[in-house]
Write a structure and sequence with these properties.
It is built from five helices and ten strands, in the order H-H-H-H-H-E-E-E-E-E-E-E-E-E-E. With 182 residues, the protein is α+β, with helices and mostly antiparallel strands. Helix 2 crosses helix 3 and helix 2 packs across helix 4. The two termini are 31 Å apart. This is XRE family transcriptional regulator.
Length: 182
C-alpha cells in the first residue's frame, strides 16, 4: 500500500500541473511557502490538515483528492494502519476512509481528537454539508455559533460551508464524518 506522503506527492504534482500552475504560484494562492509545496511534491513534507485544505482550495479540488488511495479491489483499512493528517492547531487528525467517486460528491473520514484546542474549520465549498456520528468520547461540534454536545452514537448534520468547530471533551474521542457537496 502506498504511504500517505507518496500519495500526496503524486496527486499534488498531477493536480498542480493539470491546473497549469508553477510551484511558486500554487504556494502564493494557498498562502503557504514555496518550500512547503516543493517538499510535499517530493514526498518529504509533513503537512497539516490546514495546509492541505489551503492547497486544495487553491487548486479547486477537495481535500480528499490530495489524500485518497487509488481505486481498486475491496478496501480494508485496519485502525492500526491509519495514517491520518494531523492538525497544526489542535489535537485532531483526519483520515480519509473513502473518497467520493466520479459523479458522486461525498467523502468519509475517521476523526480522532483529544481535549485541548478545538479544531476550527474555515468554510468549505458552497453547498457542503457535514454528517458526524460520534463513536467514542464526547465532543462539541457544529457551526461556530451553534455547536452541539454529542455523546457516543449521536448523529449531527450541519452546514460545512460556514465556519465550524470540532472540540473533543473526553480523551479518546473519535467520530465518522461524511463530507457531502451538493
Amino acid at each position: 500500500m502506498e504511504d500517505l506522503g507518496s500519495r500526496i506527492a503524486r496527486t499534488l504534482r498531477r493536480e498542480r500541473e493539470a491546473a497549469g500552475l508553477s510551484i511558486s504560484e500554487l504556494a502564493r494562492r494557498a498562502g503557504v511557502s514555496k518550500a512547503t509545496v516543493s517538499q510535499l511534491e517530493n514526498g518529504s513534507g509533513n503537512p497539516s490538515v490546514e495546509t492541505l485544505w489551503a492547497i486544495g482550495v487553491a487548486l479547486g479540488v477537495p481535500f480528499a483528492v490530495l489524500v485518497d488511495q487509488q481505486a481498486g479491489a475491496p478496501t480494508l483499512i485496519r485502525v492500526a494502519d491509519l495514517s491520518g493528517v494531523p492538525s497544526a492547531a489542535a489535537p485532531y487528525s483526519a483520515t480519509l476512509l473513502s473518497a467520493s467517486p466520479p459523479g458522486a460528491r461525498r467523502d468519509v473520514y475517521l476523526i480522532q481528537a483529544e481535549p485541548g484546542e478545538p479544531r476550527r474549520s474555515l468554510p468549505h465549498h458552497a453547498g457542503t454539508t457535514e454528517h458526524v456520528i460520534l463513536i467514542s468520547g464526547g465532543a462539541r461540534i457544529g457551526p461556530d455559533d451553534a455547536t452541539i454536545e454529542l455523546s457516543p452514537g449521536d448523529y449531527l448534520s450541519y452546514a460545512g460551508d460556514v465556519p465550524h468547530v470540532f472540540e473533543a471533551l473526553v480523551p479518546g474521542t473519535s467520530a465518522v464524518m461524511i463530507s457531502e457537496l451538493r
